[in-house]
Amino acid sequence: MTSNRLEAFSDGVLAIVITVMVLGLAVPKGTTWTDLVHTSGLGLLTYLLSFVYIGIYWNNHHHLFQLRPEVDGSVLWANLHLLFWLSLYPFTTAWMTQTRVAEVPTVVYGLNLLGAALAYTILQQTISRRPGGERIRAAFGRDRKGLVSPILYLTGIGLTFVVPWLGLVPFVAVAVIWLVPDRRVERYLRTHREDARRTGEDVEEGPTP
Fold it and tell me: What is the pTM of this model?
């Protein structure tokens, strides 16, 4: 089967996740900037962090499936596994916010981030092992950012036991690292199409990013 339905379903889930998170923000009862900061300031910051993470996964998910137009049952379940972890973001974000970045909620938030990262790696590996997966391996090569991210998540979880707020620093660092657009897939598709044109071979045009 093609990946169109999988991508459409995933897009819908991520859109709902973002909507649930923003609806969970506390609305100030007053009308001043002080009321906004005291009531919603922390919530807006944690929402922004989780929103960036959702955006990163949505972006990379789109790039990944440019190289995989067809999927099978194992890819579907690996994708659902990823969506499970991402769907927990509203819960873990809200708990961390409402407890003012307490130790256990912040650790749980870090475990949520780590779980999503590992799930994405499993999805990528599952796709790469299917027929045609050599395109994934060729495009991504050594995924340094993918290797560094879990280490930073574990570092953040460890720091949380020392000072909860300090544990957020590695979480923010990972988001900043991944905010830089990943052009590996575009470079691979561009090179692949150029090589095919030079040799006169037919080449499948991937979706426009």
Answer: 0.86
How far, in Å, CA of 19 to CA of 149, rounded?
Answer: 26
The Cα 16–Cα 90 span in angstroms is 10
Give the number of other CB atoms < 10 A from CB of residue 193. Answer: 14
Is the Cα torsion angle 162, 163, 166, 167 positive or negative in sign?
positive
| Tokens representing residue 150 in the block | 């879990």
- Alpha helices, H only, the chain: 4-23, 33-66, 73-87, 89-98, 103-128, 134-140, 144-160, 164-179, 184-199
What is the distance between the terminal CA atoms of the chain, rounded to a whole angstrom?
A: 22
HSE of 191 in the Cβ direction (CA atoms, 13 Å)? 9
Phi and psi, residue 2, nearest 5° = -80, 165
Q: What does the pLDDT look like over 33-88, one tens digit per residue? A: 999 999 999 999 999 999 999 999 998 898 888 777 678 899 999 999 999 999 99
